[in-house]
Amino acid sequence: MPKFCIMIKDIHIPASRIRKEIKIFSVIFVLAFLFNFISILVYKTSLLELLTMFPVVLALTCAAYLGLALLRGLISLFSTRKPQP
User: Which of 5, 11, 55 is closest to 29 using CA atoms?
Assistant: First the structure.
């Protein structure tokens, strides 16, 4: 047995939290897709751009989600809450 042993605790994420995060990610994805669709209409390009720009839309969605998660984390870190009795 090694001298130093690291014990890892199980992390339990409630289903309601997972559903909330999926909803947030879905809303960001739909908004990014809509912005792409509107730009295609405004600049009068081919609708094939919806498929060719999909990886970019997905990357922007992930970046926006991570940015929002960072912002939410900072807000929760610095928010002052009264302790629950």
Answer: 55
d(CA 25, CA 72) in angstroms, rounded, equals: 14
User: Global pTM?
Assistant: 0.78
Phi, psi of 18 (to 5 degrees): -65, -45
- For each successive 10 residues of the chain (85 residues), what is the average pLDDT? 69 91 97 96 94 96 97 88 65
Rounded to whole angstroms, the Cα distance separating 32 from 23 reads 14
Token pair for residue 79? Answer: 């928010």
61 contact partners, CB below 8 Å, separation of at least 6: 25, 28, 29, 32
Would you say 36 and 50 are in contact if contact means Cβ atoms under 8 Å apart?
Answer: yes
